Amino acid sequence: xxxxxxxxxxxIRRKNEPFKGxxxxxxxxxxxxxxxxxxxxxxxxxxxxxxxxxxxLVGVYSDPKRDPRGxxxxxxxxxxxxEAISPRAGSDAAAAEWVRDWxxxxxxxxxxxxxxxxxxxxxx
Amino acid sequence: xxxxxxxxxxxIRRKNEPFKGxxxxxxxxxxxxxxxxxxxxxxxxxxxxxxxxxxxLVGVYSDPKRDPRGxxxxxxxxxxxxEAISPRAGSDAAAAEWVRDWxxxxxxxxxxxxxxxxxxxxxx
Lengths: 124, 124
Hints:
The structure is a homodimer. By secondary structure, chain A is an alpha+beta fold. The first copy, chain A, is 20% helix and 26% strand. In chain A, strands 1-5-4 form a three-stranded mixed sheet, with helices on both faces.
């Protein structure tokens, strides 16, 4: 999760199924030979054009039913960018934008829960 | 990582390669269809006979070189048991015991780093 100084979160619109067209967090699968943190940075850059720095571990999400494609484990990190960066959609993303009202954005998967966890983290 | 009230950590001796005979944290692979937390509790119970409650996420370890068998991601959790429980070795463990001087125990993999991270966490 990339947050900006105004409390907005960087979301993409999914180009592919499942949840095609829905808002989602940027992310993707770890490649053999890269760390989870490197995969996180690579996917955010590929999908949104935003380069992120320090990552803070938020949680690990592994409910077997959370992804209709099969059992998938997501490791979620949060980072803050101070300056307003204009995202640019790429690879699996049809669009990339800063969203303030993410609770009502109809997010894919369990991403609304993940962002809520990160918000709690930020305020702790 | 299972800590007791006296600051000791519950370790096993590995029955199999790699690091056969060395001390290591209890743990193992997640099965398809179970959460990471459930896998953690199951492996600790199978290897040490200790049933653990609440888990606190410590970190995610994914250096491609951390396991000689291939690229392996470990999710590490910590828990505290207040009472002195006598462990009982099972499944992949040749022994299970409470260890105070884990820094000098010749731990397998990167487990000494993981325990150090958990210790920092406990004191924060």
